[in-house]
Every structure is written in C-alpha cells, then in structure tokens.
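Sequence of Glycosyltransferase family 39 protein (Polaribacter ponticola).
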Amino acid sequence: MDTITTFIKNNKAISWILGFQLFRLLLLPFMGLMPQDAYYYLYGQNLSFCYFDHPGMIGYLLRFFTDVFGQSIFAIKFADFVITSITLLSFYKLASYFLSKEKLQRAFVLVASTIFISILSFNSTPDVPLLLFWTLSLICLYKAIFEDKKMFWILGGIAMGLAFHSKYTSLLLQIGLIAFVIFSNKYRKLLLSPWFWLSLLISAAVTLPVWYWNYQNEFASFAFQTSERTSSITEFKFSSKYFFGAIGHQMFLLLPVLFLIFITFTFKYFKRALLRFKIPQGKTLFLLVFFIPTFVGFFALTPIYWVKLNWMMPSYITGIILAGMFVTKKLLKIQIIFSIVFHVLFSIQILFYVAPIKSDDTWVGWKELALKTEKLQQKDINTFVFSDDNYKTSACLNFFMKEKVYAQNIIGKPALHFDYLGDDLSILKGKNAIFIDSDKRFKDNEKLGEINPLLKTYFKEVIELKPIIIKINKNQSRKFWVFYCTDYQPKK
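Predicted 3D structure, token representation.
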C-alpha cells in the first residue's frame, strides 16, 4: 500500500487522472435521469438484435448493470462511468505504443481532463461503448500490424464488429484500416495477406445480427440513419451557424488548448502532404487514418449540415495521442486550468441547478412529473398515458412509472423504436388517456389554449387541464401541458 501511495505522489499524471475520476465518481449520485438514459434503458428492457435508431450495445450494457445493481439512476450512471473508465485505461495502453513516458503521461492527462470524458461518464449514449470498442480495435490492429501477431487480426475483427453493434459510424474503423494499408509503403503488402482479409471478414460476420434485424424490418435502422441526412447534405445550403456552432461544441468537449492543438497538427500534416507530397508513414500514418476521416470529414460538412457534437468523438482517441507529441508543459497546465474551471461550474449546476435549462435535454423534473402524472391517472383508472416528443417524455415516464407509457404512435406519428416494441394499440380502444406535452420555452403558468388536431382525430373529446409545474429549489423550472382525452379509437 505504501508503495502505491509513493508511486502516486511521485507521478503527477496519475494523481491528476485519479483526481478527475474521483470527482466524476463522487458526482454520480447527484446526477438525475437524462432522457437518453431512459431511452437506452428501454432498449435493454426490450432486447433485440438492433433498434430503430441505433444498434443495441448501450442497451445491453444498461440491462446488465441494472440487473446486477438494480433499477436505479445510479446503476445507469455507474455503467457509463465504468465503461468510460475502461476506455481511459485502454487509451493509456494504446498511447504507450506511440509515446515516450513523459509524452504518454501528458496525453493521459489531456484525455482525462476533457469534458467529453465527463459527458460519457454521466450520460448513456451509443458513444459510450463505441469509444471503448474503437480503442480496443486499434490496440488489436496495432499488434497485428506492427508486432505481426496473427491472433490479433482475429481479435481486431471481433472488436470492430462489436464497435458496429455500438454505432454505425464505426465503419470508419474498417475504412481507416484499408486506408492505412493502401497508403503505407511498408505495409501495402498486407493487401495480399489472408489475415488482413480474415479480420475484415470477421468484423462483417460479427455485425450479422444487426443486418438480420434490418432485413426483417425493411432496413429501417439503416434508412433512418442515412436517408434524411443524405438529403439534407445534398441540398448544399451554407450556414455559418452550423460551422461556428461545431467549433464551439468541439472547443467545449476538448477544451480550447486541445482543440487548437488538433487544428495545428492537422494543418501541418495537410500542408506537408499537399505542398511537399509527403504522406506520413509508419505509426504516424496509423494514427492519422483513424483521425482524419472522422475529425476532418465531419468538420468538412459543418458549413452545410448540423454535425452533432458527439460525431467526432472517435477521432479523439488517436487525435489526443498525436496531440501528446506536440503539447508542452505550459499548454498542459493551461488545459488543466480550463478543465478545473469547467468542471467546478458543471458540478455547481448539477448540485444546485443555478441556470434553468430551456430544453427537455435535462436531468431535472422527470421524477416529479411521473409522480404528478400518476396522481392524475388515479382519478380515472381506465386511462393510459402518452406523449409526443420523439422519445424523451415517454421514455422518462416509463422509467419512473409502474404503468406503461406510450409515445406519439398513439396518434399515428412515427415514434422511433416505440414503433417496434410490438405494442397492440387495439387493446386501448375505448380507453381514456392523459396526453403530456412539454413546454420547452416555459414562460408562464397558463394553459396552451389550443388542441393538437391529431388528438381530435383519435379521441372523442379532448379537454385541456391545468398544466403541471415542476419546482426545483423552490423555483418554477419546468412546465408540462396536460390534456384529458376520451374514448380512444386507433386507426387500422
């Protein structure tokens, strides 16, 4: 024990890492349920090879942790924290193949200090397992390529396949691997290696359950992830808001120092390739092929498309290793200062909720809403509850309430994976319902004063009730419109 204590004291990098992770762990019990937590928990409670909007890995993990630790918000957050902690350790192992001891420690502090690691530790998204299997894939591919260990071609294929079960953007792993082999002078011979092709074949084989689910469901998940976005991109409408919004998001996730290092070395390598026709080789090329397609590729779309803040996260793994080659002690200190300030502000918001959030993407008010909704439902035991905001309110109420809560498919609208739960809506015929609708821009306590025409189509009578007001720290923070609907008539 004394040896471990001495090691930590003499190793400032490890001290910083443990400090950041301890901070995150201590904050876990104070985190409320996010809509994403509730929705992917719903995945796990309805096991399937795939789901409408994503593959199922995050749902499987949440199912495992809640089965072991019980259905609670802490169990869900603890799952995110544990998986992300394993990702950090895997990052350290991967980075050790490329960096000297001093630079390795700097890279480790860089990644642990970021906001994106905190987000992954607190919020359930497909990116949580994606980052883990992405990193494990790179470890296996490194050993297969640079250490010529054949077994790791097989393990790498399995890891890439599991990454696909996390999120479809993991296909950039296979693209990066193929790009490395093509552009590498030394390793281009791998194109003739059966092990290289076996790895790709295994990665494809592991993904077959996802393909099978899509085949059974008219490729709904693949279509959802591609068709709408492709049509938006092909419209080619320039927007400075998208571009500068992406920059703001990335500076927030990485913090300004690390983001600027990313921009600097990206410019450096592109300049060398375009002006001197020199493509980096060896280990540097390996890092770049798993960075550039994701980071630069998505950034190239930002002037014409709203790129979500988490899409570039996989590029951070090798990007931060590259940054470790360039970051100085002074820049690292500035990064840590930024990180401490942001994390202190973040903890104040979590603990005291000082700044109201005008959005449903918040961790406050859901349990209170469930309690108030149950009281309303008790007044008429023949009622069911539903909402219409894609998944957020319905998923959160499903987590907290004993009775099943439905989504907007009740009134004939597409409802993401709620459409694939196998619900027989005909059993609700003739029942009354309570319709909950969030007022995201909460300004007053008044009723909405109008009724969604679709409600009148599916119900005999619709009456607006007094809105539900949620108080946080004695302040009115959230508002939900409430409608009592009679005699449900589902359409055939």
